[in-house]
Amino acid sequence: MRPFRSPVSLVVLTAALPVLVAAETTKGLPSSPPAPATFMTLFDFSGSAAEPGWTAVNDGVMGGVSRGGAKLVDGSLHFRGILSLDNNGGFSSIRSGGPIRDLSAAQVIVLRVKGDGRRYRLQLATDAQYRRSRISYQAEFPTQVGTWLEVRVPLATLVPMFRGQTLSGPKLDRARIEEVGVSLADGNPGAFALEIDWIKAE
After folding, report:
1. Engineering a disulfide at 199: which of 43, 63, 94, 186 sits with its beta carbon 3.0 to 4.6 angstroms away?
2. Which domains are assigned to the chain?
């Protein structure tokens, strides 16, 4: 398949246009308060039996030796492990299935995280496949050492990937999200630690 070309610059330019038009057409009219943001809580890590569990998928599936996994601690999810580049490895991930989620009305995934300064990846998956295996739609987000952050990942920035290879499609079907995940594949071997307080769709 053709390499994916990121549409980010185009999205930024075209997204600004409706804002400018709205400002011109409402000039001189009474202003109204903005509509409140609508959130859908995907995970709050409360320990509820209804909340789906998380499983680890590390580079051992391809011969690597990285280690990582998830553990629920005091109302937050801890993703910890050791990343290794040995045997052509270099990734660790945690994933959660559960019911199919309709995020067609959402624009952004928001995560409250405390990390180690490394750049992690949000991963979403549908039933879309490539070579009879599931495609993962991914985008990076930053962390700061020991500091809680609310990171916002626009759904429009997620790109389809398969085993580290960027694909040209298909487009993410936001109405049929079957899996949510977080991964690390920054090319830097060593210990890592990420704490997640909650994940929401906005």
Report:
1. 43
2. 8-201 (2.60.120.260)
